Structures are given as structure tokens and as C-alpha cells.
Amino acid sequence: MKKKGPPVDHEVNAGVNVSVGDMPPEEFRKYGHQLVDWVADYLQNIERYPVLPNVLPGDVRRSLPASPPEDGETMDKILADVDRLIIPGMTHWNHPRFHAYFNSSASSPGILAEFLSAALNGNAMVWQSGPAVTELEEVTVDWLRQMLGLPADFWGMILDTASTSTLHAVVAARESLADLNMREQGLTGRKDIPRLRLYTSEFAHSSVEKAMMTLGLGLGSVCKIPVDEQFRMRPDALAEAIARDRHSGMRPFCVVATVGTTSVTSIDPIPAIADICEREGLWLHVDAAYGGTAAIIPEMRSILAGCERADSLVVNPHKWMFVPVDLSILYTRRPKILRQAFSLVPEYLRTAHDDVARNLMDYGVPLGRRFRALKLWFVLRYFGVNGLANRLREHLRIAQSFKSWIEADPEFELLAPVHFGAICFRAHPPGVDDENQLDSLNERLLNAVNERRDMFLSHTKLGRTYALRMVIGHLRTEEVHAKKAWELILQELKRLRV
Ligand SMILES: Cc1ncc(COP(=O)(O)O)c(C=O)c1O
Questions:
Q1: Which of 97, 108, 128, 495 has the greatest number of CB atoms lying within 10 Å of its CB?
Q2: Which residue among 316, 326, 327, 471 has the greatest number of ligand 1 atoms within 8 angstroms of its CB, and so is best to mutate?
Q3: 290 CB less than 6 Å from ligand 1?
Q4: Is residue 234 over pLDDT 70?
């Protein structure tokens, strides 16, 4: 960390040898200012960093001492090591040419809120242990509900990731089978429970299967429903699968549909799926972790059509809403079921307010809950609804430009509709039609592009086809960055083909 302030004076250094208590306030102030300057410089000059670090597995670990220091070290030394040892091993998610996965960006208001949240160290186990933490969470989650056009009976809570949110949704779905008395009896040793079945599309995120593994329901209880030509779950195939399973003695209990699948951002037909769930009495969970955010744009609201009938829905402000990781929201119309599944109150957590206040620990696995709502609040207030919608609209516009460059180039092929900011495509030079050859060419192209380290692209498989996947959703990405990324892809393809 480059030193910005005056050299450390004797008094400040003296704090290092104090063996009890915290860092002295003057020292905190000094390094706090230095760190804020460092972060401001970092964000301002982010493009000077390679997106991908030049390290191999184990490099960072080998550069660090194997055991902790016996005595405290100076902040100067610690911060210098951030520059020397940590930064060279960072993949920079904040870089505007980070186009892999679903790129999450840390906005400045979000960063400031994280700093404050760490300082306040709030913990909303129960209302009393964090009145503001609890109530700001309730307020911000409801603000976002309104922004997404979800009905007022959707209650939400903040969790760390969509994987955790979906896990909680599947627990609630299972708990809703009242006759099983899952909370008391559990699953093991019971002969009265047939195989419970969950349905999701073959393009659903792996977190759905992970939830089933975690809950002891097993991958064998997941039925993957085939998709149509636009990668959307086929309601006819869903209805058939449910009927088939019932016929063979299994017990369907949950459907997980997706708005914005991970590979191609396809949107499952929620109204038709909701019809089936209502008819069959199944819990409908919607994974809108990525795509749901787009509903902030009024003209995109329709992507969540039918979701008002879902039992639960997850959306991740840490994906495409400029909130630093981690922050996921699980909405549900049936919070009582979540409470039934999770509330377990030991004596030491009982308070005088339990009848009138909401204790968030009652709705999920974690007891301790950090103050994540603060960064959501900062981001919502700083950008405002219109500011967020404008930024998302711009990403959609740039994604459409990128799509048009692919379509105009005879060496490339678009592989899926572009609904949001993700574009699936591949190099497909005229005359090369062998699928294995095309897969290999595109894999080499991906590696060549990423080895440059000045942009980061990821891939997926669509059926058996190897696809490149470019995502535009970073707060700092402008059209020039997408253009540059496109040029780099063209350059690397040219080099591979000579
Ligand atoms: C559609 C979808 N759902 C869930 C997840 C899991 O997200 P998280 O990392 O928050 O668990 C992802 C991750 O990209 C995703 O794309």
C-alpha cells in the first residue's frame, strides 16, 4: 500500500506494542484516510490492473507465512503486503472488462456502506440485538419489492447468496407438506415417506440440486425438465413428468423455475408453470437471482409476469444491482411456513418484544445476521430507482450492440436470444462445420482471450455445443469497453486461424 500520509510517528507506532485493547483512534483515523485514498485511486485507475492475475494455484499461499505472527505488526507493513502479495493475486471483478459469469460490481456507495457496516458491527439475531438492522432490512427489502412490481404480500429477508436463498425456499416447500411433520420427525428411518420430487429445467442453476443434496433429499429426487428451442422449461413436459411420478408412487412437492438462467438467461414460462403448481398443489420457487433485477426497468416488468403467484422468489442485488457481494433476497408469500421450519428459540434469546417485533433469526438457518441492508439502502438511495433503471437500460443497449456485431460478422454465430446483458455466441468460420472442430476452436479462443488478462470471458455448453458467454452488466462498463473486448476476440481468432 503506497504511503500517502506523513511517516508514522513514534506515538502511533507505540500502539503496536500495546497488548490489550484496540488500535488507538489516531492510528485508525490515519490508516482509515489512507485506505479510503487507496480505494479511490484503485477505482479510478481500475483499468491499469489486469482483469485476471498472472498467478498459478498455490502462488499466493506460498508467498504468505505458514503461521501467524507472534507479535503484532504495523499497519504500514500490513498495507504494504496488500499491494505486494494480495493485489497481484486478485481477479478484478471491478474491472469494466470483467465479462465472465454474472459480473457483480461494487459501487462506491456500496463500498462506503460496507465500511460503515463493519464499524457498527450490528447483528440482528433478534430485534433487540439490532432494531435498526432489523427494520432497515424490512424497509429496503420492501422498497425493492415495489421496484420489481411484486405484490404487497411478498415478505422478504436478506441472506448471503442465491444458493442459500434457494436452500431456504426448498426447506419451506418441504415444510409445507404438513402431514410429513418434517420439523419433528425428519426424514430418516421413516417408511411412510415416498420419494419427494422437485422439478426444475435442465438449464436451472446447480444451487437447486445442491439444496436437494444438502437436505438429504438427494439428486435422485430432482427431475430435470427438458427445454424448448429457446431454452425455456416446457410446461407440457413438466405436467407429464408430474403425472408419471405420481403414477409410480412418488410425491411431487416443488417446482423451481428461472427468470434468467445462468447459461443463456432464458425465461421459463412462469404463468403456465404457476397454473400447473396450483393445480397440483406444488410450491413454486422462482430463481430470478440475475434476471429479476431487470424488472426495475418499467418496460421490462413483464419478465416477472406470473411471479406474483409464486410461493417464493430469489433476487440477488449483488449480481446486477451494484451492491458488493454478498446480498441475496428471498421473498415469500408464506413467511409463516419459513418460520415454522426454522424458529427455535433458546431461553437466552427470549426478549420482552417477542410478541410485537420480528426476530429475523426465526426465518432461516443463521442466528447472527450482519448489517447487509445498509449497503442496499446506500445503493438504492444514492442511485435512486431511475438511476438504477438507466444504468440497467444502458447495459441492455450495449448488449444489443454486441449482438449486432456478432450477427454482422460471418466468422461468428449467435447461439441464443439476448434477453438481458448476456450473449452466447461462438466463432463459426465459413467452411468449418465439424462440431468437434468448432468446440475445440472456441475453447482455444476462450483460453487465448483470457490469457491476455486484459479481459475476462467465460463459457458454457448449450446441449453439446461449446459457447462463449459475454456478460455486460458492470457498473463501469461503457460501450467502448465492449467494443474493445470485441476487438480482442477478433484479434485472437485471427491469430488462431493463421
Ligand atoms: C440463476 C442463478 N441462480 C443462482 C445462482 C447462485 O448465486 P449465488 O452465487 O448468489 O449463490 C446463480 C449464479 O450465478 C445464478 O446464475
A1: 97
A2: 316
A3: yes
A4: yes
